[in-house]
Structure formats: C-alpha cells, structure tokens
Structure to design on (447 residues):
C-alpha cells in the first residue's frame, strides 16, 4: 500500500475506512478529521506542521507529558522479555505483581489489591460484576442496584455507559441496563439557581439518601461517583457535598465506588481525588494516568475487606485477555516511578496547580465567561450570553469556541457551553501563561 502523504490523503483514507469514536460522521464526511502526527512535552503537531498546545493531555491522560523516552524504553525491554502472558488460571508475571504492589503503596490506606483491566470502561464493567459478586458471596444476592449520577461518565461499554448518566449515550442502544439508577449531579452553576452553593451541595447529597430509601437499602449494592465529574463538565462539588455523602454512606450497608479514572495519578495534587476529599471508597476504578496514556490499561483498586470477601468466594468468573498485560504494566510501573522520582504530584500541589488556578481565575473578567472554576490541574469556563442571569447563547456557542481553539493552536474541550482544560501535569509556568493567552484569544474570537 502506498503511504499517503498529504493531509487530504489521510483524511480521504480515514473517511473510507475509519469509524472514529464519539465523532459526528456527517461532519467528518464533509470536513475530514484533523490529523495529529507527533507530540512532545505539552505540544502536538498536526499534519500541516502546526504546533498545538494540548490543554487536554490527550483525553485527560498524558500526565507526564509526551515524548518520555523512559516509557518507550520500558516498552522495548518488556516486549523482548515477555511481550504477553495472562493472569488466568493460577498464573501471574512479575510486571503485574510489581505494579499491583506499587499501586498499593500510593493508594489510600487499606486498599492493597488491584484487579487489572484494559481501560476505564473495562474497569467499570469489572466494578459491576465485582460488587454484585461481593454481595452474593455475603449471602445478599438481592443487593444488585447500583446508583450513579446524571452526567457521570464511567465509560462506553454497556455497563460503563449504563453506570454513567449521559442521556445521549443512553439514547443509543437501549441503556441503562436494568438495576442502575441515577441521581442529580452537584452542578451548582448550572442547576443551583438562586440557592446558596453549600445548601445546594447538601441537597444534591441528600438525593442519594432519598434514592437509597426509594430503592430499599436491602437492594442497593453500591454508589458510584467521580470525585470531580470530568466529562460531565468538570463539576467541582460545593464543599458541603462530599462530607454529607460520607455521612449518608456510613448509615447504610452499601459499597462506595470512587471512579478515579480522571482524578487519579495526581490531577488534584494528591495521588487520588479520594485523598483530596478525604473519601474512603471500597473500590476505585483507574486508567488514563496509570500509564499516562502511553499504553491502554485500567484496573480496580479494592479495599482489604472486599479482597477478603472475594477470597472466600472461590473462582471469580471474570477477566480480560489483557488484564495486567505485561508491557502495559511495565509502562505503568515506569510512569509511577517518574511521577514519584520527579515529585510531579507534590509539585502540582505546591506550585503548578496554584499557579494555573490563579491565572485561570483571571479569565472570569471576560464578557463571555459566567464562571471560571478549577481545582488541581482541571479548569472549566461557563460561556454565557448574560452573566447575571446565566442565560446561555441560543443554539450554543461551545462548538464555535472549540473551532477557534483549533484555529489558534489550542486543544480545549467543549461540553455543551462549558470549556474545559486538563493539561499534562508537567506543564510549566511559561506554558501556563501561553495557555491562558491562547484561551483569551479564542474567547475574543468567539465573542
Ligand atoms: N471513568 C471516567 C471517570 C472517565 O473519564 C472515563 C473516560 O473518559 C472512563 C471511566 C472510561 O475510560 P476508557 O475511555 O479508558 O474506557
């Protein structure tokens, strides 16, 4: 096959053969995809040679930045040593065992076991199987219902999309599957109206208790939530929210699943979002920052009592060909080593996140910005027509803003009219200054 060379060649070949995820096929048909060819640090280059600041770290995942030779070397070494073997049927291999141990060291106290998967979605499929299996072992097989949240995102497989609360995803494929309920999200700016943010946070937390009582405690297996909702629009809950949720969870015999796929591996300035908020989950799905996206890998970290119950249950008829894949595990180990040795998480907490957040707040004075919010290495801007009444633009403006970002060499994500950033954790001050400058240019172009 001839190697296509021009952007138009790539786009044409893509149109002929590639079915891209989460892409509007009508738009792709008309315009063709943007072709990303290489990357280094916090920057990407497209097939036209344009330099783009990747303020999304890929899909919230390239925590250590692009171009880390150590990760390529770890891949190469492991490929030659043992490119593949599985963890099925009483076998294991050193990279998976060492990785589980390394994760146990950074995880919240008392969470010392990991079940590996190939992605965040697979991790959440594992969550569904695991929590139901857990209750069956405990002679409570009727405890099957899992409570998630509207606009929560837990992946795109049937279980992941069902646990998530994305209406558009539910609309395709008859989801959610039975046994999954959703409650309100703690989205004060969008849904709090005239309510004080703290009162709204408590109201949103109490929705959990209402749902538990409606379903019946004896039927509820688990509550699943992201510490900060990512794909739902970087929803940072009011301070009152998590303490109230914790009190409610303490009252009922249900498992708590903190989906750390985005918040994990340093994004909040702690290793996990649960540590930032002082949560004590029973299960934590992970992926993305686990390998900084260099290879696909996910997993579920479980609390000791869950691992103990599983041990009593005999065989767990669940797993993936690539659970704990040795090459992905070697990359994850090297990625964790980089995060630790370069003190990247500590630096996020002490320097990078405070600086990003200080500069991010400056954007609040822009005429389009109704709210500038952020935490750790996450930021969101609410675009509105009228700041006072929080009135949105008819027909929306987020996609237009995103186009201006592309045109100006910036990747920022649009969730409706909420513009989002989640840059690599290694972004430096100068690059943050460049990011803020580009965001302002794009907002000006959109206004
Ligand atoms: N959970 C959360 C919180 C996510 O943000 C995502 C992906 O964005 C997933 C799960 C699914 O992960 P994956 O796309 O690796 O399947």
């Amino acid at each position: 096959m001839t190697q296509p060379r021009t952007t138009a060649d790539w786009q044409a070949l893509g149109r002929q053969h590639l079915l891209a995820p989460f892409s509007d096929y009508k738009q792709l048909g008309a315009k063709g995809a943007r072709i990303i060819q290489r990357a280094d640090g916090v920057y990407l280059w497209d097939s036209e040679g344009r330099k783009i600041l990747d303020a999304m770290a890929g899909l919230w995942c390239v925590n250590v930045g692009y171009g880390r030779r150590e990760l390529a070397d770890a891949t190469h070494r492991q490929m030659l040593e043992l490119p593949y073997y599985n963890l099925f049927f009483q076998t294991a291999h050193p990279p998976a065992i060492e990785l589980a141990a390394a994760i146990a060291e950074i995880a919240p106290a008392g969470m010392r076991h990991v079940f590996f998967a190939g992605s965040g979605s697979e991790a959440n499929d594992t969550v569904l199987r695991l929590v139901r299996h857990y209750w069956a072992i405990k002679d409570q097989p009727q405890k099957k219902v899992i409570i998630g949240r509207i606009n929560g995102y837990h992946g795109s497989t049937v279980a992941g999309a069902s646990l998530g609360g994305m209406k558009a995803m539910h609309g395709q494929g008859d989801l959610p599957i039975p046994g999954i309920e959703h409650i309100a999200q703690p989205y004060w700016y969008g849904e709090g109206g005239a309510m004080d943010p703290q009162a709204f946070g408590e109201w949103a937390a109490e929705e959990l208790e209402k749902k538990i009582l409606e379903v019946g405690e004896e039927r509820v297996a688990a509550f699943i939530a992201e510490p900060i909702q990512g794909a739902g629009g970087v929803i940072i809950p009011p301070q009152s929210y998590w303490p109230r949720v914790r009190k409610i969870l303490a009252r009922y015999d249900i498992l708590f699943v903190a989906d750390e796929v985005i918040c994990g591996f340093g994004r909040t300035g702690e290793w996990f979002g649960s540590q930032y908020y002082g949560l004590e989950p029973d299960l934590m799905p992970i992926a993305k920052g686990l390998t900084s996206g260099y290879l696909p890998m996910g997993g579920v970290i479980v609390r000791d009592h869950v691992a103990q119950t599983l041990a009593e249950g005999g065989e767990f008829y669940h797993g993936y060909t690539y659970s704990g894949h040795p090459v992905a595990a070697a990359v994850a180990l090297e990625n964790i080593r980089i995060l630790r040795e370069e003190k990247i998480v500590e630096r996020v907490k002490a320097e990078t996140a405070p600086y990003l957040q200080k500069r991010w707040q400056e954007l609040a004075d822009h005429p389009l910005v109704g709210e500038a919010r952020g935490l750790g290495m996450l930021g969101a801007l609410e675009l509105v027509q009228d700041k006072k009444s929080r009135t949105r633009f008819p027909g929306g403006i987020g996609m237009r803003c995103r186009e201006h970002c592309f045109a100006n060499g910036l990747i920022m994500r649009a969730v409706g009219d909420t513009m989002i950033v989640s840059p690599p954790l290694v972004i430096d001050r100068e690059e943050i200054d460049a990011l803020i400058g580009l965001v302002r240019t794009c907002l000006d172009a959109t206004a």
